[in-house]
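@channel sequence for tomorrow's demo:
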Amino acid sequence: YKPLIYMKKTIFEFSEYKPYIESYIHQQRQSGHGFKSKIAEALQCNTSYVSQVLNGTANFSMEQADDLNTLLGHTKEESIFFLLLVQRGRAGTVSLRKIFDEQIELALQKRLVLKDRLEVKKTLSIEDQAIYYSHWYFSAIHVLVSIPQFKTKTAVAEYLKLPLVVVSSVLEFLVSVGLVTNANGDYTIGISRIFLGHDSPMITKHHTNWRIKVVQSMERQKENLHYSSTISLSKSDILKVQAQLVDTIEQIKGRVKNSKEEELYCFALDFFRVE
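C-alpha cells (generated this afternoon):
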C-alpha cells in the first residue's frame, strides 16, 4: 500500500470534481482535518453525506455545487469549470457525459489560448488602475503575497479576514495584469510595477483608502506609531520640512527595498496646510 501524495494542482488539471475536492481538502491545514465539516455546514447537510458523495456514487446537486464555489473561493472561470465537472459527474448516460467532456475540453482550450495571448504589462492602464485603487485590499494582497507564509489565497483570506471568494477575485485580477504570479496555487510578486504620481486621478482614492485603515488601526492596535500635531512655522521652513520629509521617505524606501518580507505594514505620512 502506498499513501496518496497530494500535489498542489489547479482545478483545470482535473477531469472529475470528486478527486479535485479531495485534493483541495488535503491541501488545507492539518491535511484538511475538519474541512468536510465545513463543507457540510456550507451545504446544510451531514458530514456523512459529504463523505458518501466523495467516496461513492452519489453526487452533489447543482445548487450545492454553486455553494461550494463560494466556500472554495473559486474565481468566475474556476466556478464555471467546476459546474461543468459536476454536471459531467451527474450525467446518467454515455452520450450526455460525452457532451460535457466536449464542453470541458473547449473550456481548457480557450483557457490555453488566453494564457498564450496574455502579455505582462509594465504599467497598468487607467482602467486597471481604477480597479486596483477601488479598495484597500488590492494593494494589501499584492504586497502580502511577497511574505512566504501568505502565498496561498486561503492564508491571505484568513490573515486579512476577507471572504475567500473576494481574495480569489483580487488575485485573479493581479495575475492578469502581471502584478502577481501564480504557480500551482502559490502566489508571489510579479514583474509589473505600479506607481501613482501626485497628478494621477486615482491618488485621492488611494490615500483615502489607507487613511481609513489608519483610523481603524488607531482604534484597535495601541502599540502602533501614530503622530498628529497642529503647528505654526515660517514660510521658509515649510520647504525645509517638506524636503526633510522627502529625504526620510527615500531613506525608508531604500531600507524597505532590502528588507526581508516578514510583516505587512502601512506607511502613511501627512504634512499639509490647514485651511
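heads up for whoever presents: Strands lie at 180-183, 186-189.
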